[in-house]
Design a protein that fits this description.
binds adenosine monophosphate, six-stranded mixed sheet, 6 helices, Molybdenum Cofactor Biosythetic Enzyme, Chain A, elongated, Molybdopterin biosynthesis moeA protein, domain 3, binds magnesium ion, 406 residues, 4 domains
Length: 406
């Protein structure tokens, strides 16, 4: 049996970043950039108006007063998207809309609401400064500049930046393809009637969505019966992908075949059994470049083992460098009791008061009580040797699911 920290270290040592692919920017959110993105163009590509107003020569307004306004002749109307061929000479102006190019000869844009005007003339009743309301070419992105470097997580705004510089494709780190395989004679599929001795498969659906939430690709292989032949067949089918996640059949029972079959297939066992509760019988193996996580069948154990071991590995494969959920020091809102000897993971709720998180259990706990993790804000990590954490003492909580604050 090894410690959870050692287990994670072994996993991350065996995990490498995947290769790169070119994808459409439209579907690039969640990927890690794998190229230096340059812009040849400057953005915006031309000086343009930040307001609806009149492009003027500011000097024309120097002696403007209420009684003797500057009266500038409107020589053109320039909406966004059009370039006026006219040049503004002293005593004239061009009506412009937000985003319209700054007309030749002008040096300022006076907002429409500071003027009075008709079709022919605009009146300005006080001096207006030069250089106002002009967005300069290149103020967002200079010509021939580096816009983003490799390693950047692409988010909606990054996609917008790529669009603004004219990119349609972008080179990113590929996402891992993950096989999900349940095991157990007791499991019946989604929608089937419950009959004596059987339970419904829930782990497959939790894991499928945990994989998707982590940003990877999930493929359900199904559920293997507790026979050597079926475990063999389903594991072979699962092995087409980069990562295989199984649940159940990895403990010490006579019909727990998962590990034996994997070893027979040539997989190398990196560890089996971790000093934690729940999730002790978790195993990690590799087969060539493939990673295999054999998670316990108990539903909460599967959730916890995914969070602790599978998720960081998937993030690393995707090229992320931040692999861990945020960890906060919360204050116990009630006593937490446990046995010494193993680190405990518990589904908890957090409440924020006076700048502190207060933590309490998310209902009854147990490795088979899946609802203890449903809606949990976090997983409390209780140290190996602790036996009693009293209300008011500190508890480390991994944030897995904090809702919006307001
Ligand atoms: P095992 O690790 O195969 O010994 O299973 C441990 C416990 O988890 C047993 O009570 C199983 O019935 C339960 N279990 C195993 N696989 C699943 C699953 N896919 N969904 C829900 N419960 C499961
Ligand atoms: Mg089983």
């Amino acid at each position: 049996m090894i410690e959870p920290e050692a287990a994670l270290e072994i996993i991350l040592k065996s995990t490498s970043r995947l290769d790169a692919v070119d994808i459409d920017i439209v579907s690039s959110v969640g990927y890690i950039l794998d190229e230096e993105v340059m812009s040849i163009d400057e953005i915006p590509p031309f000086d343009n108006s930040a307001m609806d107003g009149f492009a003027i020569r500011a000097a024309d307004t120097d002696s403007a007063t209420k009684d003797s306004p500057a009266r500038l002749k409107i020589i053109d109307d320039q909406p966004a998207g059009r370039v006026s061929e006219k040049t503004v000479l002293p005593g004239t102006a061009i009506k412009v809309m937000t985003g319209a190019p700054i007309p030749a000869g002008t040096d300022s844009v006076i907002p429409i609401e500071l003027t009075t005007y008709d079709d022919v003339v605009v009146n300005i009743t006080e001096p207006f400064a030069t250089g106002k309301n002009i967005r300069l070419a290149g103020e967002d992105i200079p010509k021939n500049s580096i816009v983003m470097r490799p390693g950047r997580l692409l988010q909606p705004v990054e996609v917008g930046v790529l669009a603004s510089i004219g990119r349609t494709k972008v080179r990113v780190v590929r996402k891992p393809k993950v096989s999900i395989l349940g095991t157990g004679d007791e499991l019946i599929p989604l929608g089937a009637p419950l009959v004596p001795g059987k339970i419904r498969d829930s782990n497959s659906f939790v894991l499928l969505n945990q994989v998707l939430n982590a940003g990877a690709e999930a493929h359900r292989i199904g559920v293997a019966k507790d026979t050597l032949e079926d475990v063999q067949a389903k594991l072979s089918a699962a092995m087409v992908n980069d990562v295989v996640v199984t649940t159940g059949g990895v403990s010490v029972g006579e019909r727990d075949f998962v590990k034996d079959v994997l070893l027979e297939m040539g997989a190398e066992q990196k560890f089996w059994k971790v000093a934690q509760k729940p999730g002790k019988p978790v195993a990690f193996l590799t087969l060539g470049e493939k990673l295999i996580f054999a998670l316990p069948g108990n539903p909460v154990a599967a959730v916890v083992c995914f969070e602790e071991y599978v998720r960081p590995a998937l993030l690393k494969m995707m090229g992320q460098t931040k692999l861990h959920r945020p960890l906060v020091n919360a204050i116990a809102a009630e006593d937490f009791k446990k046995k010494a000897g193993r680190k405990h993971h518990l589904g908890v709720m957090l409440e924020q008061k006076d700048g502190h998180y207060f933590v309490k259990l998310n209902g009854r706990q147990g490795s088979g009580i899946l609802t203890s993790m449903a809606g949990a804000d976090g997983i409390a990590l209780l140290p190996k040797e602790a036996t009693l954490i009293k209300a008011g003492e500190k508890v480390k909580v991994q944030l897995i699911n904090l809702p919006e604050d307001h």
